[in-house]
Specification:
With 144 residues, the chain is mostly helical. The protein is 80% helix and 0% strand. The protein has 6 helices and no strands.
């Protein structure tokens, strides 16, 4: 009889299985607002980095050759460079506002829950920033 009860117990024990964790629905990096925010933040960061590199190089020209420096500065007064300044302000504005959004997500518990709303708030503030800047810059560039 003890053998039967031991055999019965052996049959009832289930072998533990390892299940993969269930993914939460609507995570940040699934082609949604969080992923686009991440992509735009990286693109604007790299663009700003290269602008700063060129800016340091052209500013350092004044020590090497003031004539070369003046020539470079005169190229910045062209309409194409004026439009480039719009792109620069757009990149800096988006990068800065999205950086604040990332800080809110990282340091406050409600940040991850409301990251989608904060993305749209960042885009809205960014558009307002550009609406205030672009007309004035275009008047400056094209002499209006």
């Amino acid at each position: 009889m003890p053998q039967e009860s031991a055999g019965t117990l052996a049959k009832k024990r289930a072998v533990p299985t390892i299940k993969s964790p269930r993914r939460p629905a609507g995570t940040l990096y699934r082609g949604r607002e969080g992923m686009w925010s991440w992509v735009l933040h990286r693109i604007t960061g790299v663009a700003i980095y290269f602008f700063l590199l060129v800016h340091i190089l052209d500013t350092s020209l004044v020590r090497v050759s003031p004539e070369a420096y003046n020539a470079v500065i005169n190229t910045y007064k062209t309409p194409i460079m004026g439009l480039g300044e719009i792109a620069l302000v757009a990149a800096i504005g988006l990068h800065a506002l999205n950086g604040l959004r990332i800080i809110l997500i990282d340091f406050w518990g409600w940040g991850t829950k409301h990251q989608k709303l904060m993305f749209y708030i960042v885009i809205g503030l960014w558009v307002v920033l550009l609406i205030g800047f672009i007309p004035r810059q275009l008047m400056h560039v094209f002499g209006g």
